Give the backbone structure.
Amino acid sequence: MTVEIVPPRPVSTLGLQFRRFRRNRLAMASVYVLTLIVLACFFGPMFFPFTGQDADFGNISAPIDLFSIHPFGTDDFGRDLLVRVLEGGQVSLTIGFLGALVAGVIGVLYGAVAGYVGGRLDGLMMRLVEILYGFPYVILVILLSLLLGGGNVALFAAIVFTLWLTPAVIVRAQAQSLARKEFIEAARAGGMTHRQIVVEHIVPNCVSVVIVYGSLLVPEVILSESFLSFLGIGIKEPQASWGNLIQAGTAAMDTDLRLLLLPGTMLAIVLFCLNFIADGLRDAFDPNDR
Amino acid sequence: MIRMTAEPLLSIRDLSVRFRLPEGEAVAVDGVSLDLMPGEVLGIVGESGSGKSQILYAMMGLLASNGRAGGQVRFQGQDLLSLPPRALDRVRGQSLSMIFQDPMTSLNPFMRVGDQLAETLRVHQGLSRDAAWKAAVAMLDRVRIPDAASRARRYPHEFSGGMRQRVMIAMALLAKPRLLLADEPTTALDVTIQAQVLDLMAELARETGTSIILVTHDLGVVARLCDRVVVLYGGRVMEEARTETLFDNAAHPYTRGLLAAMPRLEAPLTPRLGTIPGTPRSGGGDVSGCPFAPRCPDRIDICTKARPPMRITGEGRRAACHLVEEAQ
Amino acid sequence: MIRFVVKRLWNGALTLAALVTLTFFVMRLAPGGPFSKNRKLSPEVIANIEATYHLDEPLWMQFGRFVWGLLRLDLGPSTRFRDYSVGDIIASGLPYSLTIGFWAVIVATTVGIALGVAGALRRNGFTDYAAGTIGVIGIAIPIFVIGPVMQAVFALKLSWVPVGGWNDGWRSLILPVIVLSLPNIAYISRLTRTSMIETMRENYVRTARAKGIGEWRTIWRHTLKGTLLPVIAYLGPATAAIITGSILIETIFALPGIGRHFVDAALNRDYPLVMGITLLYGGLLILFNIATDLVRAWLDPRLRHDG
Ligand SMILES: Nc1ncnc2c1ncn2[C@@H]1O[C@H](COP(=O)(O)OP(=O)(O)OP(=O)(O)O)[C@@H](O)[C@H]1O
Ligand code: SF4
Ligand SMILES: [Mg+2]
């Protein structure tokens, strides 16, 4: 009897999984809302004749008036609130998606190498991860952003550096179990090089895990950014980010709750959407989880 | 149907098991009827997916949450399918017990083996902690667990597969049930100890006067232990006969296929079923004709159009096939 | 068992050493120093002060001095609050932080587990949806949004609880504890729910059902341990989350704990205080991770033998 060893075909299952995702109404609604917010943040400010840093001294602390030039009013410097929140969104969203991408790529490569190569290198690499895991996350991220001199890039680097660990661990486990699968052995026996195996088998088979956990990274990065900016360590005034807008809103809470609610609501909506999308992806890719 | 003088211990009438699925409904068991006499050992054979386990689960009230059982299962004068949960719990573990397919995962990994046994007695017979523990140790000893008294204090992961299945047997027979349902009790085990474990089970059951329904896809096991056999295919009964009759003179083409796939009867352990050409049908929707038709070598025109009726072909014999004649 | 604990303590000590070393050099290499912001002081005075704190010495000597101090459990005086030692500052803030952290852990685990179990037992019932909603809110709305909002509503508007501070006994605790535990309630209830649903599908739970011991006993004796193991494994990360959260909470509610000091100290380059708090948080986290491992080993006989 001959046994035909057929490698799983990830591409077709990927299509199936996305079809399953599209049937999830909450997740799809979240995708639409998120797209809308992203578009608004990046293109919305273009429709105003001023930027979020321009003070309109004739309109200080203007109230909400949807049909005026300042639809959501202004803050106590006369800066337009809506534009500031949208501009803050640009910063938060960019850092969020870019940060998740970079952290994800670093984690995937690190994990794939450790898991596929195995042996002593794996032990060493995972030892490092274990030590970094033992660090209190806040301390690490605060110290790193200080070391890199504060500012956007420093903040970005600090967040990425602290968030690549989880994808690394997950991908390593996946790569490890894949490396033992029959079709990988068959590929190796068939004369494929390690590079080919990694590119053609390991990576495509890790795709679903990476998508699921990558989608969880985005809200985490956004949360970290706004958290640090809230504490005064991240993005600094006059540049707006959701974190420092919320911080400013907290300070003015007893006089004007808008300053807190506007950026807070935006941040919460984005995090809601990202979490629903992540849930939807997990359900679509890993249906026995339910 | 089957006419015997004594009152049957168990009588299943028109049992069906259906699963609700996103795509619609799947029928895993379709109109199964059978009787079991006290002290009898009945084998249920069939390929993987033919619905063997679901019959037992339906009787035990253990169907998955998307499953529904229909029909009647009369056991000791009660219909198990319509019992309220509490009443069912007075039957399960007491007069009706079950051994599962996979001994490696069927014992609670967080509980001492002795406690898992004793629990049954404490709940059902109200024994004290000490008395239940003593009875548990004695039972472990009877299933030949070496050094049972200290072994009882151990956890399942410290036992080998064969030992775990013997623990399961001890647990199932502890309360001296009237009927034991054994779902492929040895398929997960090493071939060398399969026979040993089965013989032990049968021997203990004989001592306590317990009837057995033994689900298997190993005809060698059937020949060795069973008084009577029911052959299942696609959730339906294909044929039923006394074991010797079935092996000497099978009426149904499917049964004949199974027997032909078995190299030598006298071999102690024979290969599994499934060397009949074609793909086994598992719990499909309603097939209008004979479920075996796509794979049947003796198929005739009517087979795909009309469902073959169950015909009594002799004393305690029946078969569902268009080619089989009713006994006069 | 003892070997296991010793090994974990040893690993923890290594992690702590790595953390402390990294923190030390990161702090010193970061631009600016404890006194560089102070424009009123003349360069000579600054040089003088730096000499008393040994900041003029080469880095490796400072590190040696720090390690030597650490071995004697003496972290020296804070550079910002010059009359206080790091030990004093931590000792004065720790009770507040610990009280809040303790109650937050208690609330998060009890409420989280209860919600998760209720949801798993009655899937798609009212409790399940309620728990799911709390879960989504707790995960998606950050502490620093929900905290100030609750402050605005329950303290400023309704005056049910104080806005902040620590002057009203247990009433000062209510908002901080609720806000701090919310994200963990969310995680724990979700984790408990999936874990319980998975456990109820285990073969050994089916065996327990087959024994006819009753639904209650089946859940209590046969499903709970399997359900709780992953939840307990999460308590280590949960502690880390509570540490992170307490920094925010103490800032938002103006509480005199140590979390608030940390950000100040880092921004003002108060090297000794940063080192002290880092050490404390790192140590707490490691101890908690070891403790959860021990509890898991105690619950799960399969974990007891291999180190
Ligand atoms: N929860 C479920 N939902 C849908 N279909 C199910 C479910 N459980 C079982 N089935 C289906 O019921 C059919 C019969 O399964 P059953 O477990 O009785 O087979 P079996 O004869 O015991 O096979 P095996 O020898 O492999 O144990 C199978 O086709 C299976 O896919
Ligand atoms: S009824 Fe027809 S198809 Fe079915 S077993 Fe008999 S001969 Fe074969
Ligand atoms: Mg089965």
